[in-house]
Amino acid sequence: MRRHHTALAAVTAVATAIGLNVGGVAAADPTTVPNGPWVNDAQHVSLERLHTYDELTDALHRLESRSQGRVDLSSLGTTHEGRDIWYAEVGSGPTRLLYVTQQHGNEPLGTEAALQVLQQLGTSNAAWVRDMLDDITVGVVVRANPDGTERFQRQNVDPDCTGNFCAPGVGYDINRFHDPALDPADNPVPEAAAIQAHVREWQPDITVDYHHQGSYVADDGSLITTSILWPTHTDVDPAVVTASKQVAVTVFDTVSAYGHGEVSLYPGSDLAGIARNSFGLQGSASLLVELRGGIGQKSSGYLIRQAYVAMMAVAQAAADGTLSEVDPSRADEIPPRGPFVPGEE
């Protein structure tokens, strides 16, 4: 595939300059071995570098204060255990870009990257940041599943859950309860209901949902660092699919060109309740981003870097209008995901 990446040089320079450090979360050395390290069953993977709910709450409030009014922090609602579902917004432009992170509590690095995006956009006085925020408004659901995160589990916390997509005694899979046909007031999953109510009110032009998958390899044996997919539900407007593919190509180019990234197509389903499809059905260009699983203490640093740079590249392309110039047909050339690596998840 031809690789043209929007504003990548500027974004990469920013990532290097700030060291990707928010609230004490330091990134790995940029010379980390490409596509490594491999994580085995015996390896201890520390979660100390990740924000707990209380730490995240404190970091967001500090950022709101430091931003001097640029970052607006609010709660979209509360979980079964009473934790806030934090939402941060920055910018005043007409194009609305929404990031959603950590619907699954054990998929954490999109949240860490989003914090750094908010730090950059909320506190930098660089001219390019000011220009960007005149053209777009960036909203972030910062950790959609705070209860599940505290237990480092996929589901939310609802031991009384029943029916489809319920793990008995544990909770629901949030990312199956976004069907636009389901009224938020009737949604049994408070986290999904809060996100859907916000999407209906705010009507984002672009949404990107960050997750983790297991560890997979490409044809040459290198670890896939990111897999992506646009809406695949048959009722999504073709124009929305086209716009979504333009976002996909932007992410593909950015990650492929930075940090030894290896990008593949994610083999997702067409369920309307999946956020990627739901956002598309509601008229928003939409993309799922699945970061590599099996994260170790070194590999998490470069995965955060790649997620951050991809987020910033989409924001820049949406702001300067170059996103609409991307050839969407190139998305169909993104290589399929390779085989799963046992013991790496």
UniProtKB/TrEMBL annotation:
Gene Ontology MF terms: metallocarboxypeptidase activity; zinc ion binding
SMART domains, per the entry: Zn_pept (SM00631)
Single GO BP term: proteolysis
GO cellular component, one term: extracellular space
UniProt keywords, alphabetically: Hydrolase, Metalloprotease, Protease, Signal, Zinc
Transmembrane spans: none
Cofactor(s) the protein needs: Zn(2+)
Leader sequence segment: 1-27
Keyword NAD: no
Stretches of the chain forming a coiled coil according to its record: none
SUPFAM superfamilies: Zn-dependent exopeptidases
Gene3D superfamilies per UniProt: Zn peptidases
Ranges for region Disordered: 324-345
Record PANTHER family: PROTEASE FAMILY M14 CARBOXYPEPTIDASE A,B, SLL0236 PROTEIN
Name of protein: Peptidase M14
Organism lineage string: Bacteria, Bacillati, Actinomycetota, Actinomycetes, Jiangellales
